[in-house]
Amino acid sequence: MAMATVMALMGVAVSAGGRAGGEAHAAGEVHAAGEGGLRWAQAWGAAVQQPIEGDVDDVPNWSRRGFRHQSVRQVVRVGVGGDRVRIRLSNRYGRTPLRVDGAVIARSGGGAQAWPGTARKVSFRHAGSTVIPVGGEAVGDAVTLSTSPLENLVVTLYFAGETGPATFHRVGLAASYRATGNHLNDVLARAYRQSSQSSYFLSGVEVSGPFRAQRNTVVALGDSATDGVGATAEANGRYTDVLGERLVAGRRNLAVVNAGIAGNMLLTSSPCFGEKGMARFRRDVLDRPGVRTVIVELGANDVGANWSTGACFPPSHKPVTARQITEGYRALIRAAHGRGIKVIGATLVPLSGYPGYPGHAAKVERLRTQVNHWIRTSGAYDAVVDFDKALADPAHPERPRPGYVYEDGLHPNDAGYQALANAFELPAL
User: What is the CB-side half-sphere exposure of residue 302 using CA atoms within 13 A?
Assistant: First the structure.
């Protein structure tokens, strides 16, 4: 593994672009440290990516055009509860500084409605607006709002001017709404006439409360099997959602944050499928507050798309070996352990029969088998969750079980995601 990559994972700035984002992040952390010594857990999060038209199902999104004189209301479900809340906004892929002219957080009243009497104005360093530099992020001031585990909140942002293309997350599987004009304080949904299944600028919602453990955030780093492609929209059916529900039922005060990006690869960045896992590990795992455990579910697209070409793959994309993939895992593990974070490795799900990975079927399965053998037997991870075994058809182990698979023949359906969530031993988290 290149030394620059390892340095970046360990938190050392190696480029001007990384330094710009790092400065914005550091400023937010200094601000947070001054808030009475509050301890934070990230209760909801999303892995941001650059603007692109359409998601994996060709459903339109608003990222390319962005927003102008509009309010954007987004629904999030928090994994843990507390007595104070703050939000985190990202302009990672913006072309110009992003001005946010107002932000409000409230309990959800269903859909685009806010629960009456619960709206709280969000300030940024005690100001009602903020400007986020290109590549940077902003952390809102803490607001007093009592929340419960698995409760829905709505975060509303207002942009008086033009945002330009929006840093966003494609496969949100939860509704975002927009309205023309300033509707920050609207309780009713009347003005919010358009909806999207993606999230915009919002990268985290964090909660402070009387946590028993020192760290309360579990981050799931992954591709479409983590992002939830194939799960029913608006139903909280991703494996991370179900795992969060298991933790609540088991009285374990831990939030599961979904940092999956559909199509994402461990070793190759893509204009369609986000920065490679190696590059985004610091931002999406190490720099989130209160992280105790990371689940690494990446590599399936490095294997399945190993010989693919096209607009979503850079000219530098070349076939990789099992050793290159596993060395990538080792680098992530070292970086996480350097921050005192436990690492759980997930085996690669069955890939055979998926039309999106044409040709090379035997080579794909051989490489997947090699990688899974290493995940199971190397001892490099603190624990292993066997997604392959949870989804595989006993009669044809290279394929997913028919009852657990979405109509595309690859991604889990709701039953499949339930099986993935049930594969975890809760004490391992």
Answer: 26
